[in-house]
Each structure stands twice: as C-alpha cells, then as structure tokens.
Amino acid sequence: MAADSNYHAWPAQQQENFRATMDKKVRNRVERVLLDSLLDIQCSIDDVDKAWSDAPQSKLNILNWALLLTKGIGKDFIFLNEMLADNKSLLDFTTLYDYNYADYLFQEQANKKEFSDYEGMDYYAYKHPSWVRLLIDGDFYYATFTSVATQLCDGIEEAGRDYIDQLIPHTLVEGKNHGQQEKGGMFWDMQEDANGLERQLKELNNRWFSMYRNAG
Asked: Are 134 and 157 in the same domain?
C-alpha cells in the first residue's frame, strides 16, 4: 500500500487498525496513487483534494470503491461517513450501539454548551441515522445505520405532517434567493405557501415539532 511500504507484511488486525485511523496526510498519498492508477490523473500531494473533487462524476463510484479497500474495516470494508476524534474509529467500540450512544452523549454535551436554553433529548438508537459505505459481494454501496425506533418515529412524524397538510394545505415555493451561487454550492431558499395562512401553519408546525420531540 502506498501509505506504508510495510503494510502487506503486517498481521491482518494491524492492517485493519491502520486503515481505520489513517491521518489526512497518509490518506492523501493513497488518493494520489488511486487517481493516477485508475484515471491517469497526476497531481501533487497538495492538490489531491482538488483533483479528487474535479474528477468526472461518472468515475466517482470507481474511485470510491477502490478507496474503500484502503480504509474500510471488517469483511465488508465498512467505512463510517461521520466525524470521529483523531485516531478514533468504529474499531474502538464493541457494538454499533456503543458507538451511537457515545455519539449521543457527545452531541448532548455540545448542545448544552452552545445553547443555554437547551433542554436535552432522550436517547433512542440512531435517532439520526449514520451514513456508511460498504462492499456487499464485492459491489460498492451507500447505506445507513438506523433502528426500528427510528423507523417508527419517522412514521409518526410523517403522519403528523400529513395531518397538518390536511388542516392547512400548503406547498413549497422558491424564494427570491433560491439557487444563487455561494461558496461551496448553491443557496437553498424554499418557502411554504399556505394561501395567506403561513403564520398559522408555522405555529402548528412548531407545536407538532415540540410535541413530537418531547415524546421521542
């Protein structure tokens, strides 16, 4: 492996730990080799991020498939597309529940520090599903970690929103700034049109959100 010339001499567990905890500098070396060998794109280490983002859209799955082989863990080469502390990975947790609960505690602590009026939220598994990449029978897939509780709560929330739409029919319309270019992408400005009942709709949505949030 381009990241370390001794990689193939290591035991399997050491290889997996290395893949899971590569720092930015090491990852860039790997990505530089993949760009060159798969797409014949040559660049310096400093330009890897730009070259990767400029790669043809039609080739991204090929790149991401190969990249997963260099940083995924387990027999399916799972990679978690979530922020983790330096030198931390899924390998530090015995189960997905352990990872998710630790992340919940971290998020709760951060919210309480940032928002003085934050009341906290009760835990259930994967309230916010985690995005992952993995190989299934050698094929590349995007997936999410979720739970039965999440599916039930999402269904309840959707039923509530459907009922609100029956009470106050409304649609989303483009605001005056929608689609304008900004750094890193486009500005999203979609607004609710409720035929003059926007204030009442907002109040109803807020009450439903508060009720649903406290129940969840």
From this structure: no
